[in-house]
Write a structure and sequence with these properties.
- The chain is about 45% helix and about 10% strand.
- The longest helix has 17 residues.
- The radius of gyration is 19 Å and the shape is globular.
- The termini are far apart.
């Protein structure tokens, strides 16, 4: 049952779409649009053919603009959204990172470092930050949204952190927000990569609000028209659009055949992250990202899911018992002067 659930045609197609999206490239200036609308700074992820996947050039455009808007007296709120109707942002540029890691190129360090710095900027932002997470929101897309003050889901939202399926771990601050979800929901989502849909995204606390898709354009306009909005003003506008969501979370019963190394790293990541602040988590996760770049399973996972598409990764080690405590300790150890600095 487990294997059928993980490797069903629908699931395999999803992985192919979500991760295969990262082969498209175009000029960064058109990949992300940055504009002032009323009192709002609006970020539009503009790679619809790639499901708005996040690459390093996009990060390098978004980060300085966020810093400028934070200090700009005429910008009172930031809104981030995606185009195309299918995705907010399906993830990060995994293919490019894989190629760089194999070749020993700097992107394997630069991408994670600069992405995490951007995640931290969002998590510490001084002005209201509203992410309209309509459609697929995974991996790097979660990092662009979940640390902001407001996250608005719709009936088309699909949330997941599927990194353990490719020998990685739920990064972009997953070690911070996942253990803070109620019960053990965060651990379940982290280990299995399970996809939450629609109202369930708010039920578990990933989204702060749920708004019907046909009302999102009007909501965005109301936010842009706010004069000198405070967090309270923004919350009032969002609450006025909020659809009623009951507190019942539907039974989730899937477990997936993931990388044993990723599972162990993720388990400890969330255990430690529960008592760390966002900056400490991102520093920890950068160390883990580099451990994955040095290891086997990340490249094998990407090969099995993206390149050869045989969906039969050969994990090393192949079981949890063989993932040693020494390896775990080394993965979490300081990188010295190469540690992430925030």
């Amino acid at each position: 049952h487990l294997q059928r659930a993980l490797f069903s045609p629908r699931t395999l197609f999803s992985f192919a779409v979500f991760y295969g999206a990262f082969t498209f490239t175009s000029k960064a200036s058109s990949e992300v649009l940055l504009e002032r609308v009323g009192n709002a700074g609006v970020i539009t992820l503009n790679r619809p053919k790639a499901l708005n996947a996040l690459n390093l050039n996009m990060i390098r455009h978004i980060y300085p603009q966020l810093k400028k808007w934070e200090e700009d007296s005429e910008t009172d709120i930031v809104i981030i959204k995606g185009v195309g109707g299918k995705a907010f942002c399906a993830g990060g540029d995994i293919r490019a990172v894989t190629d760089a890691g194999k070749a020993g190129g700097p992107l394997a360090q630069d991408f994670f470092r600069e992405e995490y710095i951007l995640n931290n900027t969002i998590g510490t932002y001084k002005k209201p930050y509203v992410a309209l997470i309509d459609g697929i929101t995974m991996g790097g897309g979660v990092g662009l949204s979940v640390h902001g003050q407001f996250r608005v889901a719709t009936e088309k939202t699909v949330f997941a952190m599927p990194e353990t399926a490719i020998g990685l771990f739920p990064d972009v601050g997953g070690g911070f927000f996942l253990p803070r979800l109620r019960g053990k929901m965060g651990l379940f989502l982290a280990l299995t990569g399970f996809r939450l849909k629609g109202r369930d995204v708010q039920r578990v606390g990933v989204a702060t609000h749920f708004v019907q898709l046909d009302k999102v354009v009007a909501l965005e306009k109301d936010l842009e028209d706010l004069t000198s909005p405070s967090v309270r003003d923004v919350a009032d506008v969002l609450n006025s659009y909020q659809e009623q969501v009951d507190g019942t979370f539907h039974h989730l019963h899937i477990l997936s055949k993931m990388s044993p190394t990723s599972l162990k790293l993720t388990f400890r990541q969330l255990q430690l992250g529960a008592s760390l602040n966002l900056q400490e988590v991102l520093m920890m996760e950068y160390r883990l990202s580099q451990a994955c770049m040095r290891g086997h399973d990340f490249y094998e996972g990407v090969r099995a899911v993206l390149i050869d598409k045989d969906q039969s990764p050969k994990w090393k080690p192949s079981n949890l018992a063989e993932v040693t405590e020494q390896y775990m300790d080394e993965s979490f150890s300081s990188l010295g002067d190469k540690d992430l600095k925030l």
